[in-house]
Write a structure and sequence with these properties.
Number of domains: 2
Bound molecules: zinc ion
Strand order of the largest sheet: 13-11-10-9-8-15-14
Structural class: alpha/beta
Number of strands: 15
Distance between the termini: 9 Å
Number of helices: 9
Low-confidence stretches: 1-19, 32-41
C-alpha cells in the first residue's frame, strides 16, 4: 500500500482518531496543570544539549515510562525517565514527527498514560505497525521484521556499529556528508562498540553537532552477543540468557552517557528476531527497523529503500557498494531520514 493510498483511504478514521487523541491529551493536561501549576514555567527549559567531547554524562535511575507531557500547547510522549548529571530528565518523543529530545522533567507537566490512550498518535501507530511486520521465516526465528522502507523519493542510509576491534570507517561517513548538506544517516549503535571506540564516538558526535551529518541513533542492543558458527536462529538475541530489556536500555544508557540522544528506533542484531522479541521492543515503546537493501548481500536499493551496511571495519564490500551507490545511483537521492518510515 502506498503512502498516498493509506492517507486517502483512512482520512476520516484518522481525523476521528486525532480528535480523540487530542481530547484525551487536553484532559490529562488540564488535570496535571491543576495539580502542578508551576510545571509550565519556561525558565531553563531548553533541551539538554549534546555533551562536550571530553565530558561524560552520569546516567542514573534509567527507567521505561509512558507519560503524556505538555508545556503550553506542546505535547510530547515521555518513554524514559532518568537522573542525568543529577537532574531529573525525560526522553521525550514528538508523537507526529518521531523526533526525540532529552528535557528537564521540571519543565514539563507529565502524567502516566496507557498505550491505548495514545494509540491514535503517529508514534504509537508506528510502534504497533513495526511490531506486526513479520519479515520472512528463518528456521525457528525470522529475518528482517519491522519497517524496511521510507516514504517518498530517495532512500535512507543505515550503518550498523556491531561490536568490533577495528576502527570506525570514517571515510564512508565523510562520503555521505559530502553528498548532501546535513546528510541524514541512521547509526545502529551497540553499547559494546561505544565502550571500545570513545574517540570514534566523539568524532561522530562532532559531525552531528557541526551539522555535517544529521544522525539518528538507533538502538542495536548493549552486548550484541554472537557465537561464530552457531545457526542464526539460535544465535544473537536468541542465545540462552539474553535479557532483551537490559539489552535495549543498556545501549541507550551508554549512548546518553557518551553525549547522544536515543531515537525511537531499534534494530535487531543480524536482523534476526521472534514475535516475542518484537513484543518486548514494542513494550519499551520502540519502533523495529529492518532493511530492504543490505548491500553486502547484493540487494539493490530503489526509491524508498532503507539501505544497510556496516561501518565497523568488518564489511568492506558493503561500503564499496555504498560508495558506488552514492556516486552513481540517483534513485537513492535525496538521502532521507528513517523518521519517514512507512
Ligand atoms: Zn549488528
Amino acid at each position: 500500500m502506498s503512502a498516498t493510498n493509506r492517507t486517502v483511504g483512512c482520512a476520516p478514521a484518522a481525523r476521528k482518531g486525532a480528535t480523540v487523541w487530542l481530547a484525551t491529551a487536553a484532559l490529562i493536561v488540564l488535570a496535571v496543570l491543576a495539580a502542578n501549576p508551576a510545571a509550565a514555567g519556561p525558565e531553563g527549559c531548553q533541551p539538554v544539549p549534546p555533551a562536550g567531547v571530553a565530558a561524560r554524562r552520569i546516567v542514573q535511575s534509567y527507567a521505561s515510562v509512558l507519560d503524556l507531557c505538555t508545556r503550553g500547547a506542546v505535547r510530547r510522549i515521555a518513554i524514559r525517565s532518568m537522573r542525568l548529571d543529577g537532574k531529573e530528565t525525560m526522553l521525550l518523543v514528538d508523537p507526529d514527527r518521531l523526533t526525540t529530545s532529552l528535557e528537564p522533567a521540571a519543565c514539563w507537566a507529565c502524567s502516566p498514560v496507557t498505550d491505548e490512550q495514545v494509540a491514535e498518535s503517529r508514534f504509537e501507530s508506528a510502534v504497533r505497525r513495526a511490531r506486526d511486520k513479520e519479515g520472512r521465516p528463518l528456521g525457528d526465528a525470522r529475518m528482517n521484521a519491522g519497517f524496511t522502507d521510507v516514504s517518498g523519493s530517495g532512500a535512507s542510509i543505515t550503518l550498523d556499529l556491531c561490536p568490533s576491534r577495528k576502527p570506525l570507517d570514517r571515510w564512508i561517513l565523510s562520503a555521505v556528508a559530502a553528498r548532501q548538506d546535513g546528510a541524514p544517516v541512521a547509526l545502529s549503535v551497540t553499547g559494546a562498540w561505544m565502550r571500545s571506540h570513545p574517540a570514534d564516538m566523539a568524532w561522530l558526535l562532532e559531525q552531528n553537532r557541526a551539522g555535517a551529518l544529521a544522525i539518528t541513533w538507533v538502538d542495536h542492543t548493549d552486548l550484541h552477543r554472537y557465537v561464530p558458527g552457531l545457526r542464526p536462529d539460535r544465535n544473537l538475541m536468541l542465545l540462552p540468557g539474553t535479557d532483551p530489556v537490559a539489552e535495549i536500555l543498556g545501549a541507550e544508557r551508554q549512548l546518553i552517557a557518551a553525549g547522544g540522544t536515543p531515537s525511537v528506533f531499534f534494530r535487531f542484531p543480524g536482523l534476526v528476531s521472534t514475535p516475542a522479541l518484537s513484543e518486548v521492543v514494542a513494550s519499551q515503546h520502540l519502533v523495529v527497523l529492518g532493511a530492504s537493501a543490505w548491500l553486502a548481500l547484493g540487494q539493490k536499493p530503489r526509491p524508498g529503500s532503507v539501505i544497510l551496511a556496516h561501518a565497523n571495519g568488518n564489511e568492506p564490500q558493503g561500503l564499496a557498494a555504498l560508495s558506488k551507490q552514492l556516486s552513481g545511483n540517483p534513485d537513492i537521492l535525496p538521502l532521507r531520514a528513517v523518521l519517514d518510515v512507512r
